Automatic annotation (TrEMBL):
Name this protein carries in UniProt: DUF1825 domain-containing protein
A Pfam family assignment: DUF1825
Organism classification: Bacteria, Bacillati, Cyanobacteriota, Cyanophyceae, Nostocales
């Protein structure tokens, strides 16, 4: 069975995409959130990034041709912006850390 033939992989991909889209939409109102709302949003984004990191690791470790092609496409797309997948995660984590530090200063 191919990597993408797995119902589990398909469901996780669908759920990740939907959750990410929902958080991005919610994030448009971040400035209007109270302190607890901002804290919750940051925690949800951190959890999302961890789920995404695990999902991407599955692609990386899979011997399935389509999974390997998907990873190569992602690397190529990110490479057009001068970024590797690891740098993408690092930048996202840095952004979340800055958001947390800003929240702490508002205390």
């Amino acid at each position: 069975m191919g990597f993408f033939d797995s119902d589990i992989v398909q469901q996780e991909a669908k759920q990740l995409f939907e959750d990410y889209q929902g958080l991005i939409k919610l994030g448009n109102s971040y400035g209007k959130f109270d302190r607890e709302g901002k804290k919750l949003f940051i925690e949800q984004m951190e959890a999302m990034m961890e789920r995404y990191r695990v999902f991407m690791k599955r692609f990386e470790l899979s011997e399935d041709f389509m999974a390997q092609m998907t990873m190569e496409q992602l690397k190529t797309q990110l490479g057009q912006f001068g970024v590797t997948p690891q740098q993408m995660f690092d930048q996202m984590n840095s952004t979340l850390e800055r958001m947390k530090a800003e929240l702490d200063r508002q205390n």
